[in-house]
Each structure stands twice: as C-alpha cells, then as structure tokens.
Amino acid sequence: MNRGFTLIELLVVIAILAILVGAALPFVQSYVLESRISKAKSDLEEISRALATYEMREKTYNASDIYQLDGRYLSKAPQDPWGRPYVVATSSGIVYSCGPDRLALSPDDIVQPYLPPLALAQVKWADSNHTGQVDAQNTPDTVLFYFSRVVSATARLNKDPTNADKDFSLTGTNTLNKAFDWKSLVAFGEGRAFKVNLATGVLDAFTPGSDTFTVNTENQIWDSSQFPSPCLASQDVLIQPQ
C-alpha cells in the first residue's frame, strides 16, 4: 500500500523551501543589481568612446540623448538596464544612467565622463603687430587661452554671484593683473578658446617660453545648471609663442 504525504509533512516541506528562498533572495537580488550596474558601466564606456570620436571627427555634440550616434558610432543606441535612456550632459562632458531609482540627478546615478577634466590647457602669445616683443603698439598683441573643454559663459567661480568675477585671475611671473579675470574671458562668449587683446596701460612685460600664467581659484567654478558642476583647479601654464 502506497502511503502519501500528510498535510503536516507538506507544510513542513513548504516552510523549509520558503526559508531557503528567503535566505537566498537577497543574494539573488544583489547579484541582479550588480549585473545591471556592470552592464550600465560597460554601455557608458562604449558610449563615451563614441561621443569622443564624434567630437573629434565632426563637431561638439549638443543632444541630450545618444540617438545621433546610432548607426554611425554605435551599432545600436541602447537603453540602460532599468529601461531608461542614457543621458548626455553636454555642458558637463558626461553621459550617465539614472540608475536603479530611475530618477535623474540622484545619488545612485552611474556616470561616465567623455571629456577630460576642465583645465587651462595652453596659453599662447600672438605677436599681432610683428614687432618681435610683447606690446600693444598699433595692432595690439593677443593672448590666447585654450581650455580642455567648452567653458560656459554662465559659469560662476563663486557660489556668491555678486562676487563671481573677483576670485579668478590669470597672473604671470611679471603679471598681467586683472586684465584677465573670469568676467573678461567669458565676455567673449563660450567655447574652448578665448582671445584677449593686450591693451596699453594694463600690460607689464612677460617673456613667452619662460614665464607662466597662474590660474588662481580660491573657489571652484560653480554653475547650478550643470551636473556635476565643473571644477577648474589652480595651476601654472607656460606662455608659449604662437
């Protein structure tokens, strides 16, 4: 005679299975989350390379999504593992996923830069009047500032906007003083290169090839419209002849 399971035995088996599933579930959930994060990071690395290639070959990328890359620089524009599109923050030079909470600009965002950190990459003196020396006679000489990425005209160097133009200066060994504060630079618009004419009365001699410009930033660049806010570190940059 075959003997079946009693109700109590079935309940005991079910209870044991429930305990095992309950114990294993956090590990499974953690594994799934880590897999999704790894997939997002892998996607973002591929997208960042595509964005960098796009900017090198074509022009500045201005879209907030990645669909302009589809077919040319990406075989297919993917969505992140949580079903949301990847976001390009062009002003900050990053591409990111909104992460598990699917909310933009939140702590669990997964971020990948596609542009280098904001820095003053080069300073060049242009002998516009062909006198062979730094001067402002007739056609004034110019100083060219090249940044590693686009600098926004709306960026501020201080969280106090009333003092935004007073905490940044470019000074050389023999100083060009306040002719080159942040406000003077961004008055020329936004971009990666800025040209400033030397003017009589503000110029002290400097020697291209040996003197340096020093970026003095007591506070970091602050722009509430950008995520994350870019920072421009204090640094010394050699003045080179063009």
Give a verbal description of the structure.
The chain starts with 6 loop residues before the first helix and ends with a strand. Helix content is 23%, strand content 22%. The chain folds into 2 domains: 7-113, Glycoprotein, Type 4 Pilin, CATH 3.30.700; 120-241, no CATH class. The protein has helices at residues 7-57, 182-186; strands spanning 87-89, 94-97, 110-113, 120-126, 142-151, 168-172, 191-197, 212-217, 235-241. It contains 2 helices and 9 strands; from the N terminus they run H-E-E-E-E-E-E-H-E-E-E. It is α+β, with helices and mostly antiparallel strands and 242 residues long. The strands form 2 sheets. It has a 6-stranded mixed sheet. Strands 1-2-3 form a 3-stranded antiparallel sheet, covered by helices on one side. Mean pLDDT is 75; it is low at 157-161, 164-171 and 173-179.
Summarize the structure.
The chain has 242 residues and is of the alpha+beta class. The protein has two domains: 7-113, Glycoprotein, Type 4 Pilin, CATH 3.30.700.10; 120-241, no CATH class.
Task: Supply the key terms.
242 residues; alpha+beta; Glycoprotein, Type 4 Pilin; 2 domains; 3-stranded antiparallel beta sheet; 23% helix
Q: Portion of residues in helices?
A: 10-25%
Count the beta strands: 9
* Total helical segments: 2
Structural class: alpha+beta
Q: Average the pLDDT over all residues and give the rounded result.
A: 75
Name the strands of the widest sheet in spatial order: 6-8-9-4-5-7
* Integer-rounded radius of gyration: 28 Å
Tell me the strand percentage band.
15-25%
